[in-house]
Design goal:
single chain, alpha+beta, three-stranded antiparallel sheet, WW domain-containing protein, WW_dom, WW_dom_sf, ABRA-related
């Protein structure tokens, strides 16, 4: 989104206000804590499964698939609704895809380790960007940050 949320159409600002979304924060970079939280949600051990961390980052950026809308329930919790099927879910519609990818990629990694084509444990480094958009590497085991 643009740096200035007031430049967005009023309908977008109204929906964001209804859902409690801070439009100015949408352009903010993903933090290591957000990646760590998403990794845990997807069943990834962020300190030992560095090869899976890009999936956690991708899941954080996943848009709503076509046909899905987001609403709030009576308690103020967001939920997702698919217009064509009338399916509702409190989980992002892309979550199932990412959970399946984690399982597939983990199984592929285990096979590669058994075949001697991959290291058993990879260093959990992931490239992120700071508030100024400058890239850096972050280690999820040591909390070390290194310039790109």
């Amino acid at each position: 989104p643009p740096a200035d949320p007031s430049a967005l159409p009023s309908e977008v600002r109204e929906i964001a206000a209804y859902l409690g979304i801070d439009l100015a924060a949408l352009g903010a970079p993903i933090t290591p804590d957000e990646v760590r939280e998403m990794a845990a949600y997807l069943g990834i051990d962020a300190t030992r499964e560095g090869y899976l961390l890009p999936l956690a980052r991708m899941a954080l950026l996943a848009p709503l698939p076509r046909g899905w809308d987001i609403y709030k329930d009576d308690a103020g919790e967001p939920f997702y609704y698919h217009r064509a099927t009338r399916r509702t879910s409190y989980r992002h519609p892309a979550d199932e895809y990412f959970i399946a990818r984690v399982l597939d990629d983990r199984a592929r990694h285990v096979r590669a380790v058994q075949d001697g084509g991959a290291a058993r444990v990879s260093e959990p480094w992931l490239e992120l960007a700071d508030g100024a958009g400058e890239p850096y590497w972050y280690n999820f085991r040591t909390d070390e940050r290194a310039a790109v």
